[in-house]
Design a protein that fits this description.
It is a single chain. By secondary structure, this protein is α+β, with helices and mostly antiparallel strands. Helix content is 32%, strand content 36%. A four-stranded antiparallel β-sheet has the order 1-2-3-4, with helices on one face. A hairpin with an 8-residue loop joins strand 3 (82-91) and strand 4 (100-107).
Length: 110
C-alpha cells in the first residue's frame, strides 16, 4: 500500500539566515510511504500529516537537512509499519525565480 501526501503547505521557522530565525516562512512537504496493509492494520495519513506539521513547527530547525532526517526518524518511530518512505521539503519563497528543497528515500528493516 502507498500513502501519498502532496503539497502539505504550512508556515514555520526554518533556516539559518537571521530573518529566517524570526519570521515564519512557507514550506511544502511531499511524503510517500509504502507499507504492508494486512488484517486491518493501516497508517492514518491524517496523523502522518499532523506529525510532520507539529514536528517542524515545534523544532524550528536551522537546517532543512536536519528537519528531513528528524522527520524520517520520528515518523518511523511513531508509525512502525513504514517500510520505505520518500520525503521532500521545499522552501518555495526563499529565492527569487525558483523553489529549493531536498529529498531523501528511507528504507527501514525490522
Amino acid at each position: 500500500m502507498r500513502i501519498l501526501i502532496e503539497d502539505l503547505t504550512f508556515e514555520t521557522i526554518l533556516g539559518i539566515l537571521p530573518h529566517e530565525r524570526t519570521t515564519p516562512q512557507r514550506v511544502r512537504v511531499e511524503c510517500r510511504i509504502d507499507y504492508t496493509y494486512a488484517d486491518g492494520r493501516f497508517i492514518n495519513y491524517a496523523e502522518v500529516a499532523g506529525h510532520i506539521v507539529d514536528t517542524m513547527q515545534k523544532m524550528q530547525f536551522d537546517l532543512i537537512e536536519t528537519a528531513l532526517e528528524t522527520l524520517g526518524s520520528t515518523l518511523h518511530e511513531r508509525f512502525g509499519l513504514i517500510e520505505t518512505m520518500e520525503l521532500t521539503i521545499r522552501k518555495p519563497d526563499i529565492l527569487p525565480h525558483c523553489t529549493v528543497g531536498i529529498s531523501r528515500r528511507f528504507t527501514f528493516t525490522d
